[in-house]
Amino acid sequence: MGLIETFYATIANYPFLALIVGFLTLGWSADRFVNASAAAAKNLGVSKVVIGLTAIAVGTSAPEIMVGIEASLMGLGELAIGNAIGSNIANIGLVLGITALVSPLPFAENVLKRELPWLIGATLLTLACLFNLYVGVLDGLALLGGLGVILYLLARRNRAMPDTLQTELDELPDMTAIKSFAWFAIGLAVLLVSAHVLVSAASVVAIEYNVSELVIGLTIVAVGTSLPELSVTVAAARQGHPEMAIGNVVGSNILNILAVLAIPALLDAQAIEVAVLWRDYGMMVALTALLALLAYAIGSRKVITRFEGLVLLAAWIGYTIIVYHHERIV
């Protein structure tokens, strides 16, 4: 038996082990790939604004982006769509919910004035694209157009606030040109293999347990690719920087719906089920609206309290139960 046959046989026989390995290596390689990309760009003299808008901004969504590409190329567009929507649901319900239980989360000023309104706008744009129950090339281009607008606004802000951008860049590790390119190649190679292992294992689990790729993407894969956000936000809260948590999640959610959801639209256009719109995207809209309510409601403390974090976590748990119950009765 050749190496490739052994590889696929291992995934088929131990799909959950392959999922765990895929998640771990995906997170590890995404971090190395992003850092090396930024360091290589800095060594090549790429402007700080460009680095800030790519490596830094896309960093936490790298796992979702790579899984979306791999799933779409394998003809599993439903898994990619489920991952994009499910990651946003997990980011607000699971990630913010758990982090708020560790420490109450204040809304930073830039989140209230810029990032959260952008998320609301991106959510409405995506709703318009999904409303005809089809995701295709035009929808993908519209989503990428919305991302382009936000990146332009970010670029304009960074030019006006260079000190903020410099602080972000200073947090990146210094690497020589050879080291940065070596880690770039290693990170990209492991990222590609990890995404392939993860998507292949998810497909095997879906077949073995007679559930759709969409549900696997909404739940197992979404949680796995949201683990980087969970670790970053909990660490920030425990280290005395809870104001970073909401900004990390909001930024990741913007990229998930404008960049990650655009991938299956462009590479694997297809009709979507009604349930995707009213149950799954509807839950994402509801959690986003709840987040906005906590931020902007009259008399709001502009903080996600521990009780409100418990509500968010309970909402995510309840949604996950509903998804699997609906799958069984269908």
Give a quick summary of the entry.
The protein is mostly helical.
Which descriptors apply to this entry?
two-stranded antiparallel sheet; 4 strands; single chain; 330 residues; mainly alpha
Give the arrangement of secondary structure elements.
Blueprint: H1 3-13, H2 15-43, H3 48-58, H4 62-73, H5 77-102, E1 105-106, H6 109-130, E2 134-135, H7 137-160, H8 162-170, H9 177-208, H10 213-238, H11 243-260, H12 262-267, E3 270-271, H13 274-296, E4 303-304, H14 306-329
Antiparallel strand pairs: 1-4, 2-3
Helix pairs in contact: 1-2, 2-3, 2-9, 2-10, 3-7, 3-8, 4-5, 4-9, 5-10, 5-11, 5-13, 5-14, 6-7, 6-11, 6-13, 7-8, 7-11, 9-10, 10-11, 13-14
Structure commentary:
The protein has 330 residues and is an all-alpha fold. The protein contains 14 helices and four strands. The chain has helices spanning 3-13, 15-43, 48-58, 62-73, 77-102, 109-130, 137-160, 162-170, 177-208, 213-238, 243-260, 262-267, 274-296, 306-329, and strands spanning 105-106, 134-135, 270-271, 303-304. The strands form two sheets. A two-stranded antiparallel ribbon has the order 1-4. α10 packs antiparallel against α11 (243-260). The radius of gyration is 19 Å and the shape is globular. The model has no long low-confidence stretch (mean pLDDT 84).
Report the biggest beta sheet as strand number plus sense, adding barrel if it closes: 2 strands, antiparallel
Q: Which structural class fits the helix and strand makeup?
A: mainly alpha
Spatial strand sequence of the major β-sheet:
1-4
> What are the segments in which pLDDT stays under 50 over at least 5 consecutive residues?
none
Number of strands: 4
Quick check: average pLDDT? 84
**End-to-end separation:** 39 Å
Shape: globular
Q: What would you report as the Rg, rounded to the nearest angstrom?
A: 19 Å
